[in-house]
């Protein structure tokens, strides 16, 4: 293990933003390797040590000689690295609930990506109908689920809350007038934003406010 873990990802929010929040909450010393151009990533991925790993991908964690790939695996690795395995769920019920919420969140993120990659010449005509038909119902389902509990699995914070917060931030920025009606998501968003580590990070110079998605490839972000 190294003195600092390294988080590698593009210089956008994307898949890494919940991990940035997570690292801040965990209090692990870390630094970022931000890739601004595809050729920067290509240079690294074709060189040691990244080119020695079959599963190489972004985002990744480098911890001394240890390399970990794939977003969901990073949350598990970092929880153990920080001696906070309770963030993976403290009992079977929490772990099952976490997995259920993760599945719904994956559907929400996929729908948002599909929305924001509608061809440019069709986006204005199709965006509202697509949002109402393909995105909103998933958000409403999550919101209803969260109405009577503080965190995704109940009383205890877990790593899925970090991913949930990023989904909320996308919705809050894209459709603020709709987000205010999603009571459960709005409450969760406020609770999470007021965690001391998250509150401090969001006003620091490390925070990436925008873009959420790669500029030019997405219609919004």
UniProtKB/TrEMBL annotation:
A molecular function (GO) held by this record is: glutathione transferase activity
Question: Which keywords are on file for this protein?
Answer: Transferase
**Record carries keyword Transferase:** yes
Pfam families reported for this sequence: GST_C_3, GST_N
State its role: Conjugation of reduced glutathione to a wide number of exogenous and endogenous hydrophobic electrophiles.
Family membership: Belongs to the GST superfamily. Mu family. Belongs to the GST superfamily. Pi family.
Q: State the oligomer form and interacting partners.
A: Homodimer.
**Entry protein name:** glutathione transferase
Question: Which source organism?
Answer: Paramecium primaurelia
